[in-house]
Amino acid sequence: MTIKLVCIGKTDSTELKQLIEMYKKRLQFYIKFEIEVIPDLKKAKNLDENQQKTKEGELILSKVQASDFVVLLDEKGKEFTSVGFSEYIQKRLNSGMKQLIFVIGGPYGFSEDLYKRADSKLALSKLTFSHQMVRLFFTEQLYRAFTILKNEPYHHQ
Questions:
Q1: Contacts of 139 (CB under 8 A, 6+ apart)
Q2: Which whole-number Å values give the CA distances from 104 to 29, 49, 52, 67, in the listed order?
Q3: What pTM, to 2 d.p., does this model score?
Q4: What is the pLDDT along the chain (157 residues), one digit of tens a residue?
Q5: Distance (Å, rounded) from C-alpha 17 to C-alpha 79?
Q6: Distance between CA 45 and CA 21 in Å, rounded?
Q7: Helices 131-149 & 14-27, crossing angle to 10 degrees?
Q8: Is 30 helix (H, G, I), strand (E, B) or coil?
Q9: CB atoms within 10 A of CB 35
């Protein structure tokens, strides 16, 4: 299986990039993990909120295959503990799917078409984080999930 994180816009912070890269590298010991960054929309200031969500949704959907399991990282999604998230990942691994895609939307969230296509919604927290921070938090939690599944000492109960 491949796990892919799809997100809109590049990360500007060198420090965040380094931390994300560190967890991405660690994840390679457990699973094929990729981050696909879709460039920010050009002339987004000329678009209203719905137009921007629609265009971003089209770009995201162009990266998704019919057989992919798509999870939106959405504030209204299901919340898990780290152990619960590791169990969620294990269920996906056991299902035999080829690709599990997690999606971080743009500044206004997701288009209706993307909500319709999604197989699941997951919330990292009730708090709101910048899209750049979400990449780091998600990547770290995914790494944590695999260490839990392998009974490694990274996560403490």
A1: 5, 20, 23, 24, 27, 35
A2: 24, 16, 14, 19
A3: 0.95
A4: 999 999 998 888 999 999 999 999 999 999 999 999 999 888 777 888 999 999 999 999 999 999 999 999 999 999 999 999 999 999 999 999 999 999 999 888 999 999 999 999 999 999 988 888 999 999 999 999 999 999 999 988 7
A5: 25
A6: 31
A7: 20
A8: coil
A9: 18
